[in-house]
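Subject: complex prediction, re-run

Hi both,

The earlier run crashed halfway through, so I resubmitted it with identical inputs.
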Amino acid sequence: MALLSEKVRQEVENILKGLKDGLKLVVFTQEFECPTCEDNRILMEELSAISDKVSLEVLDFVSDKEKAEYYKVDKIPAMVVEGKKDYGIRFYGIPGGYEFASLIHAMMMVSSKSSTLSTETKEQLKTLTKPVHIQVFVTPTCPYCPMAFQMAHEMALESPLITSDMIEATEFPHLNLKYNVFVVPKVIINEAIEFAGALPAAEFLKHVMKAER
Amino acid sequence: MEFILPAELKEVPVEEAKLYDLIIIGAGPAGMTAAVYAARKKLATLVISKNVGGQTLLAPGVETYMGYQYITGAELMRKFEEQVRQFPIALLIGEGVTKLSMKDNVFTVLTSHGKNFKSKTVIIASGRRARSLNVLREKELIGRGVSYCATCDAPLFGGMDVAVIGSGNPALTAVNELITYARKIYNIVQVSVKADPILIEKAERSGKVEFLSGYEVKEIQGEDKVERIVIKQTKGDKEVVLDVGGVFVEIGATPNVEFAKDVVPLNELNEIVVDCDCKTDVAGLFAAGDVTNVPEKQIIVAAGEGAKAALSAYHYLIES
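This time it finished cleanly. Structure:
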């Protein structure tokens, strides 16, 4: 049975008609798939079947180790939303609930190569000189979470130095323990800077710029 | 598994230079219903809100909105949004309101992004936000075990012992959400549980819930994260220490009125005082939903009040 209902599939089809350039969903799973790895792969197969502009590459986390290293993917289920190039936009865990809208948002953004960030924010991001790794922990039932990781993904699109991971917290309990994730959205930047909540762009940016220090 | 998409966008430009007939602050059940009624009266309407759905987004299941035997809060709000987007209503979503002022019968609304909008009438439907306990270590441990959103955070407390503070429907809803994940749930209640019997029965049936009535939280303890809470009898001196990793605070909500304090009278609970037509003491200024003194904070009540507020604003505009 399809994961996407016919109603949602049609809505996605309408949205994806607005895709500008082609994009690729690079999915990482493994031979003996975990339940969410399988759902994630099936969901991406269904999505890529909706539009000619969306291609799909399914990789094995173990046997395609080189590709995993190339994309710096260190856990599964994982997915890279790649446009003309890899903008550093990652989804770890199946993007269900509110995260699904954010996946569609990321696809549209990568395809058009344009974000909604203000000119000031884009200019600030251009001054970055060091790599920035943003991890945003979310749950599918959290209505505030997409605001946080859409912001992170938009920043990744604008800056070649930023990599942005959406992490579905319930699927990676060891990371919740490591980073003390007891609230979502929770953002970890370069392992050292952290904050909780969906902050406005200017506030989010301040934390990102701290990575320069 | 649910896959949630936002309602399809029908872009209506948001114009700072324009004098709107009506600005609606908030896009929960009251604000969105008001928007639909205003649009049907062809009022030039702008809705400003941080998000679409407000507190209802956090309701895991709604069984009291007529026409739906069961619907998630998110899905219900999406249906509201779809209905709003059928009409030419300008929506400014993602920005809060920081100041409301009035001069020469024209209202000015300042947003968190520094934009100014002007209107002949305003409906405040800005809802409420969770109240805090105001006890030791609560602030420091927010996001480290202290949570105000069980819908968002419950899945992070798998296998843990947690406490839910509060006695009403939101508290018992949080308890029931946690049943799926937590090992044990203490429900700390000042006097007695006031939630709907159907919610209490579900909690009792789980065998995971211990109700501790007649207690209040004295302090939360823990260095980097919540480790325990100390509760104290409300009518006595007995103290009990509970080893918990999570504290879910569900003791009611406080109205979002800071931006309007200088303009409109509030009651002792900080609620905007309205009459049965949703009029405030200020001509042209209306309010609806949980931000007002109307009793019973329910989705269906807020939606009805939103309709009334929009119709009152319309009558005000054609009569003035």
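The domain at 119-210 of chain A is CATH 3.40.30.10 (Glutaredoxin).

- K.
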